Amino acid sequence: MSINSFQKLLIHIDAAGFSVRKGQIVDAAIVPVLKQRNTREENRQIKAGDSQVFEERLDKNNSNGSVWADSACHSVKREAALPGAHYRSQIHRKSTRKRP
Q1: What is the spatial distance between Cα 88 and Cα 8, in angstroms, rounded to a whole number?
Q2: Which of 49, 70, 67, 46 is nearest to 58 (CA)?
Q3: Cα distance between residue 66 and residue 80, in whole Å
């Protein structure tokens, strides 16, 4: 991105009422990317692999105590076990039809 393009982008950001500051993360899509299409079996394997290493990834030295994970890691058993280990669950849950 050229300096001129970057300056134009900053003008648009300011006009929208936002400000850019050092250290903040800005998530923006500037160019289209290819969309990945997995089969149902591939998605099942990905989700199973993520949830199998959940306990191994917990950091006992985490001073915050919140545990963030995607919906593949959600289970009633995990939700019940986390508070006993001094963690707060922030695990996402799958939405249901008509309730996003």
Answers
A1: 43
A2: 67
A3: 14
The span from the first CA to the last CA of the chain, in angstroms, equals 36
Radius of gyration of the chain (CA): 20
Which tokens hold the place of 31? Answer: 């160019």
CB-CB neighbours of 72 under 10 Å: 19
Cα 58 from Cα 87, distance rounded (Å): 9
41-80 residue pLDDT tens: 888 877 766 667 777 778 877 778 888 887 777 888 888 9
Tokens of 51: 């949830």
Is 73 exposed, middle or buried (CB count within 10 Å of its CB: 0-12, 13-18, 19+)?
A: buried
pTM comes to 0.44
Residue 89: count of CB within 10 angstroms of its CB: 18
Neighbouring-strand partners of residue 66? 88
